């Protein structure tokens, strides 16, 4: 595992954000566009991650940062712990836990460590998965995307206004009970059954730097974290919650 020995303030005046359980950088890209420099951590190699990357267990890495005091190099933390409890969608981000058996809910230990940092944080989860405070809910239709990709976010140490949830323009394309439905959104998960191709997922989510299906199916659209990141950046700059 890479140890956090190379973390240092070397990114000029941009605040540094830690992107835990980073996958290929869907969240990280949005924060970058919002004005942050980003350091990603994931348990498997992510050669497509577009920023500084450390391979290793995310919680062990965060623990080492806290213990060493290097966490003070960061201004905020984003975490997308695998939704293992009752869900096996995110196999790649925590292969060491073993899949097909009893899965551990990583949200509570992630939250406990994030609270130790004293930094503002964001925990992201899909709808209906591990229990988090739903301080913010986002949908692709809010950003005119080709996916719905509903996601909930728990915010620690800061707040953001909940945007209105516009009415969906139609269905998600695909088969339901043997019948095919067309629609303005694609299903960016799985394969077959009318689900999105890799190019369709890239276009629908605004992710062009990876063409790995597993990475795309796990990613959140950068528009989500850019929206969050702009409010977080303003909060850090002014000390007033957005």
From TrEMBL:
What keywords sit in the KW lines? Methyltransferase, Transferase
Q: Name one GO molecular function term.
A: methyltransferase activity
| Methyltransferase is among the record's keywords | yes
Keyword Transferase on this protein? yes
For this entry, list what GO says about its biological process: methylation
**InterPro entries, alphabetized:** SAM-dependent_MTases_sf
Database matches in SUPFAM superfamilies: S-adenosyl-L-methionine-dependent methyltransferases
Under which name does UniProt file this protein? Answer: DNA cytosine methyltransferase
